[in-house]
Amino acid sequence: MGVFSTAQAKRIAEEAGYDLVEIAPNATPPVCRIMDYGKFKYDQAIKAKQARKNQSKIEIKEMKFRPKIDVGDYTTKKKHVLRFLEAGNKVKITIMFRGREMAHPDQGLSILERLADDLKDVAVIENAPKMEGRNMHMLIAPLPAAAKKKKEKNEGKDQQDA
Q1: What's the pLDDT score for residue 154?
Q2: Which of 8, 35, 57, 85 is most buried, by CB atoms within 10 Å?
Q3: How many CB atoms lie within 10 A of CB 72?
Q4: What tens digit of pLDDT does each residue of 99-138 get?
Q5: Would you say the C-alpha torsion 114, 77, 138, 98 has a positive or negative sign?
Q6: How many angstroms separate the CA atoms of 83 and 100, rounded?
Q7: Is 88 in a helix, a strand, or coil?
Q8: How many Å separate Cα 14 from the centre of its chain?
Q9: What band does 150 get if pLDDT is binned at 50, 70 and 90?
Q10: Beta carbons of 93 and 137 less than 8 angstroms apart
């Protein structure tokens, strides 16, 4: 619109039924805009809410194993890990060593490798097996295809709720 004095700009904004909002105070001369400030703030809040809605929160679940785990227990825990991965969560696998088991970390490593091999079609190893004190840890994450499936499943559930 051009360069106006502050009083003139306020008068023009009032006549139009809007607010005079300062956009660039450090410019010479300062830049202002005539707009409905309440509507502007409302639109910003709606955009922020929409952005938060589209975010997905990834949780890290933990499953603990022992070096001398039995086959039945292993398959049960593997099913739980698989369920966590299908839900789109990362899973931290922990092997807990006690007493003389500390002398055989290769047993724990073989369990982690077997689990990674069993889940290779649905998960990827994010952190390789690592020994920390009496525990050995490994972090696995779902494959991107599994994450897409989770998003589609959630969208379908939202549509059913509506």
Answers
A1: 58
A2: 85
A3: 8
A4: 888 888 898 899 999 999 998 888 999 889 999 989 999 9
A5: negative
A6: 33
A7: coil
A8: 46
A9: low
A10: yes
Express each pLDDT in 34-88 by its tens digit.
889 899 999 999 999 988 887 777 788 999 999 988 999 999 999 999 999 888 8
Tokens of 29: 């001369």
Q: Nearest Cα to 75, choosing from 115, 107, 113, 112? A: 115
Provide the token pair at 108.
């724990």
SS3 152: helix
For 83-104, give the secondary structure using H, E and C.
HHHHCCCEEEEEEECCHHHHHC
- Provide the token pair at 110: 């073989």
Helix axes 71-86, 105-118, angle to 10 degrees: 50
pTM exceeds cut of 0.90: no
Count of helix runs (H) and strand runs (E) in the chain: 5, 6
CB 12 within 8 A of CB 32: no
Place of tokens 């690592």: 130
Peptide bond into 25 cis (omega under 30): no
DSSP string, 31-78: EEEEE-HHHHHHHHHHHHHHHHHH--PPPEEEEEE-TT--HHHHHHHH
